[in-house]
Amino acid sequence: MKKTILAFSRITPAMVERLREDFTVIVPDPRQGDLNAQFNEALPEAHGLIGAGRKLGRAELQHASKLEVISSVTVGYDNYDVGYLNERGILLTNTPDVLTESTADLAFALIMSSARRVAELDAWTKAGQWSRSIEAPHFGTDVHGKTLGIVGMGNIGAAVARRGHFGFNMPILYSGNSRKPEMEQALNAQFCSLDQLLGEADFVCLVVPLSDKTHHLISTRELALMKNSAILVNIARGPVVDEAALIHALQTGVIHAAGLDVYEKEPLTASPLFQLPNAVTLPHIGSATHETRQAMAERALDNLSRALKGQTPLSMVNPQVWKS
Ligand code: 8YV
User: Which atom of ligand 1 is the closest one to the Cα of 95?
Assistant: First the structure.
């Protein structure tokens, strides 16, 4: 008998057809009513789940008695209770590497937009406000040659740092759990404490995974350590920053500006951030390019079908489950 897959998001109809060669595939359909109800109804039959954007912990998975694998179409896995999955022997796979460069591109879009006020001045021009040559009140700040602080020098952090070093001649500081000698060698990056980085960087770019240790890593104390002229960029996860503290810091000039792709609560539909010209607010689009979302879905599909066929998947979050 074919195993059953519940494909709850991010998979194209063509991919579903490919999966159907080997598996029974259930795809919740908005035309058939409530998506959550369809998901919960199909869950007890599913051997594999594939998708993104759903919190899947103990409560949500209690009726998923046949579940063997969750294939997340994301690199971050803070939506899953990995301890519980380990207990249950459920494998979790993710999609690292294929989104590294796109996400680093977006970090630079935020850096450029916040520093040169791209989004703000675009709206201003379109509002018909440009009546004479631009003067100091509309000037931005330079990016090239400024110090770039990378909080979390993983793959994405390194890709942001490379752009800063080679493209913009920026001195690189980084903080994190471990030193990266190859980054120090290749980019002349300097390892330092988070506090030192916050005090010295002109741009502080957050690229750490969300965990108990990084929840509210940046709060009132840390914002106060930053230069008044500094810009905070968050492409990691919203809860890494205490958003209320950030809003206060932006309103009172504790820091100059922020470029944000992620928020404590998503989707963000109303926020004091929307009233702040010095906050660039994007709707979590780090990996959202046609090419990268396609590559992520392909990787997730491959991870899932390999795991369900007993072949080792390429990217496993809890490989100990696979070994046992
Ligand atoms: C996702 C991401 O698009 O992969 C990740 O961890 O943050 C993004 O690629 C995000 O989860 C939005 O749903």
Answer: 4
